[in-house]
Amino acid sequence: MTQPPNNSDEWYKDGLSFECSLCGNCCTGAPGFVWFNEQEADEMATILNIDAPTFLEKYAHKKFGRWTLNEVKNEKRQYDCVFLIDLPGGQRGCKLYKSRPTQCRTWPFWPENLKSSRTWKNAAKTCPGMRRVDANFYPVEDIRIILNQNEF
Ligand code: SF4
């Protein structure tokens, strides 16, 4: 797990803005991992109206001893999260949005993105939600709370 920055490293002390634009970029691309715990597996299974063992068998696999969601190779040879869906108007979203794992809920306030303004800007290149002028504002207190939710 990447360590959250110390308070003295909080270059974002004046807060940051973010609001998802439903482009789906963070749910596709190079192969990656969406880690989740047992409770999150139960919640995702409930949304799908199946039991947790069935959920794990159909939609997940173990890597490095932990559960991660499956991916599906698309026509652009990228890897979509198994729950990425097309929405009206060309947008893309999550089939399990209300029960998505913490890793997804806490994007883009991940330790690796918050290391510096440079890493934040770098992540923003592929996430238009981090560049929106009308985005929700997150004060530093909220960012700290989100950072502490990360287990991955
Ligand atoms: S990349 Fe950013 S704007 Fe696009 S779906 Fe993910 S969070 Fe939303």
UniProtKB/TrEMBL annotation:
InterPro entries: Puta_zinc/iron-chelating_dom (IPR005358). Keywords: Cell projection, Cilium, Flagellum, Methyltransferase, Transferase. GO terms for biological process: methylation. One of its GO terms (molecular function) is methyltransferase activity. PANTHER family: PUTATIVE-RELATED, YKGJ FAMILY CYSTEINE CLUSTER PROTEIN. This is Flagellin N-methylase. It comes from Poriferisphaera corsica.
